Amino acid sequence: MHKHPGSGRRIVWWSLGLVVVLLMLGPTSLAKNAAGQVVAVVSFSPIADMVRNVGGDQVEVVLAVPNGQNMHFFEPAATVLARLAGDADVFFINGLNLEFAQRPLYESALGERPDLRVVNLAHSVLIFRAELEGLGRAEFRRSPLRPLNPAFDELFLGPVDNTDPHAFLDPENGIAYVKMIRDVLSEIDPENASSYAANAETYIAQIEAVDQQIAALMATIPPELRRIATTGEGFNYMAARYGISLEGELFDTLNLGVTTDPSPQALANVARQIRALGIPAIFREFTIDAAITEAVARAAGLTKVGTLSEVLLPSPEWDTYLEYLLANARVVVETLTGRPVS
Question: Which of 107, 115, 180, 182 has the smallest count of CB within 10 Å of its CB?
Fold first, then answer.
């Protein structure tokens, strides 16, 4: 489970030459596919949608973990790993340990591609502001890992391995990801750099518009309701961006990433803490059994229970990065206020 003790959410963006770390395992060469497109393998769905929007028709996006799949358990298909080991031109990952479940398979594929550029987006472009007067990092308790090759630690974790990886849930951070994607694609495919720049400019404007729309929605939540409990701590950045206090660690004792059947006593303990803190609503990640949060809500005397997602879902209101940001915000507002949001 991830731990984010402060209100870290904002980014500091430096120019590509100063700080962006493009992690490479040797020299690169641009292969492209039979259609003349750059082949970009992408670790998970929000980033894949960003790459599609920036790359347009010039980039083939190969998604490793499809929409609606749990990043903590899903294993990429052999066809994806074959592209990674074969004709991929670039591999975009979030980094900061988000890909821990897939990492052993990626290590094997990357071992056959010493020339492949791997871009760790999160640690390459983000510094999180923990306090107004200083810079800090959003920490989390590392999940148990299978035996891994330490030679890949810097690639998949980054130089700081205790940073909450879910930065993309803050649109400002999403914009930083888009800028990084634009610059990487432009560097490896300079002939289409102007197209990538134009696409990124359009897409950034769309993200900014969605950010403003979400802020307006969140502003309708009364102050006394702006505190929530979640089954995980992946929504800290969204909460911090829009002034919501989030208690994600309350469910840690249930070990929901390991067990699907917590004891009644454990559920009752969580419910007692929620009552004591006066939290008005509980939100579960879509991968968590609804019966668990419903049981806690009943024991805590709550009727406000919602479902959020850290990944894109295969439905019209959740299948793009922009829709996904809006959909999560609508769930928060509708659950807390009891009013439908159009």
Answer: 115
